[in-house]
Design goal:
By secondary structure, the protein is α+β, with helices and mostly antiparallel strands. The chain has helices at 59-74, 88-101, 105-124, 137-149, 154-173, 201-214, 218-223, 225-239, 245-248, 282-288, 294-304, 308-313, 316-323, 349-352, 369-383, 401-426, 436-447, 452-459, 465-468, 473-498, and strands at residues 3-13, 19-27, 30-40, 45-46, 51-52, 256-259, 262-268, 275-279, 331-335, 338-341. The strands form four sheets. Strands 1-2-3 form a three-stranded antiparallel beta sheet. Strands 6-7-8 form a three-stranded antiparallel beta sheet.
Length: 499
């Protein structure tokens, strides 16, 4: 939610019936109040302009106090432009600076892109500036024609005009001008393209099959090792209720909370700043085992003597040590107070047995998830402040917010390029992108019987702020049960496909 500064009359009256004037600062749904030390009879308060009416004897003095207090509150944030010409363009530029200074880098880049388009359009129509009063339906329609001529798509044009309208309304809220007509009331925004791209069930099954091939075909794994990480990130996003890439990249082991089998991922969504949680489903456990420290992976492989998928992912020197049984019966120290005595009867022939290719249907049963969860808790306890995935690291924490944003975007670009390779491996016609896993989760869960309400909570949509106020722990349990049921149904569909 944005930052809003509003002059108001206090609700309580003084003994003589007057009300004090306060400035209300609202940010992230929390309000702070600042007094200007003046009170007036309520009848002299102009509710529309939020100023003292000119009928009140000392209206100029009090309105000046209001203006000064507003400037004081905003002096370290957003400069208020009160120039004679009422420049929309100058106000837009200063608001962009405010976004950048506030480290809202994603919003800054979007708004700045629109600002640059406006400047280019103004140069074409031989105008150096754009005033608030210049924005009318004729101007908006000509601007729309410019966007069309420059091959800007319908959805993008709609988002651009929303930003232009947003800046217009911010100027109106700050009394930079008086608008006698709202130019946006008659101007029709470009229609929003309905529907988001997502995978059909049969397309999603193709991704699962490629993922399974990584678990038994060592030659295939070595050839497409980078894509193994990519498919892990894609499926992790899907099974974590559509977690966004920017949130995946920031996940640390201490984001995993709970005891024994009841583990959850707790994190704050970067886009909405809302706290959310995801049960650690079996499918997420399967992915996380690849990112445990090597010592814990070795412990798991020797003690369970199964899971060829994880064995294949090890570096050759670790595979050789296991195959030669050098670790049989030895102790592996994880920390000062945690060590494991490895079993003596570890048999590496299981990992060298090519007939596993014929046991694909039973491959998923080779994963001991209860043991992995215990190892995850050890990892969380010993290395909780480390990042889970090899996408981000401690050194990047020293970067500025803007530098971190650019770094993550670079990683995202690489991820999307690798998704194109994954698309080819899976034989898909549908293009893959980081956000498609999120849409696929919502679409498939809906088609397999989840309610729209539960899906919306799972996705943590910003539009459900009001609904979320009425939620209790029972609602979360309901959502968890729904998603567990959905994933069970999905497993059944995958089994049907095999048969």
């Amino acid at each position: 939610m944005g930052r809003r500064i509003t002059p108001i009359l206090w609700t309580r009256k003084t003994q003589n019936g007057d009300k004090f004037i306060y400035i209300r600062l609202t940010e992230n749904r929390k309000s702070t109040y600042f007094s200007i030390g003046k009170s007036i009879p309520p009848k002299y308060w102009n509710k529309e302009y939020k100023r003292v009416s000119t009928q009140y004897p000392s209206y100029q003095e009090i309105n000046e106090l209001i203006e000064n207090k507003v400037r004081e509150i905003e002096k370290n944030d957003l400069e208020i432009l009160k120039g004679e010409n009422g420049s929309y363009l100058d106000f837009f530029l200063n608001y962009n600076k405010h976004l950048e200074k506030s480290n809202r880098i994603g919003s800054y880049k979007k708004f700045n892109n629109v600002y640059n388009h406006l400047k280019k359009f103004l140069s074409i129509i031989y105008k150096k500036d754009l005033l608030f009063k210049d924005i009318n339906i004729d101007f908006l329609e000509k601007l729309n024609e410019y966007f069309i001529e420059n091959n800007i798509g319908q959805t993008t044009r709609r988002s651009y005009f929303k930003i232009i309208k947003n800046i217009f309304n911010k100027g109106l809220d700050r009394d930079l001008f008086i608008s006698y007509k709202n130019p946006f009331s008659k101007f029709k925004l470009p229609k929003e393209v309905s529907g988001h791209k997502s995978l059909k069930l049969e397309e999603f099954i193709k991704i699962i099959k490629v993922k399974q091939r990584f678990n038994f075909d060592e030659e295939y794994f070595n050839k497409f090792q980078k894509i193994h990480h990519t498919i892990n990130f894609f499926l992790f996003s899907f099974y974590s209720h559509g977690m966004r890439f920017g949130d995946i990249i920031r996940l640390k082991w201490n984001n995993i909370k709970g005891l024994d089998d009841k583990l959850e991922i707790h994190y704050t969504m970067d886009k909405t700043k809302k706290k959310t949680q995801v049960p650690l489903y079996d499918e997420l456990v399967d992915i996380l085992r690849y990112y445990l420290i090597v010592k814990l992976q070795i412990v798991y492989l020797v003690m369970t003597n199964r899971d060829k998928g994880l064995f294949i992912s090890l570096k050759d020197n670790y595979k050789d040590v296991l195959i030669r049984k050098e670790l049989n019966g030895k102790r592996i120290k994880i920390s000062d107070n945690i060590e494991f005595k490895l079993r003596n009867d570890f048999d590496p022939s299981f990992y060298q047995n090519d007939t596993l290719k014929n046991l694909l249907d039973k491959e998923i049963d080779n994963i001991d998830r209860r043991f992995i969860k215990k190892l995850i808790l050890i990892q969380q306890n010993q290395f909780g402040n480390e990042y889970i995935f090899p996408l981000f690291n401690k050194s990047k924490e020293k970067l500025s917010v803007k530098q971190q944003y650019n770094f993550i975007n670079t990683r995202l670009s690489t991820y999307n390029k690798n998704l194109k390779v994954l698309k080819s491996l899976c034989g898909l016609t549908q293009n893959l992108s980081s956000h498609i896993s999120r849409h696929t989760f919502s679409d498939l869960s809906r088609k397999l019987g989840s309610s729209i309400y539960d899906i919306s909570i799972s996705l943590n949509h910003q539009d459900l702020n009001t609904t979320q106020h009425y939620l209790n722990s029972g609602d979360y349990i309901s959502v968890e049960e729904t998603n567990l049921g959905f994933y069970d149904k999905l497993k059944n569909e995958l089994k049907k496909e095999k048969n």
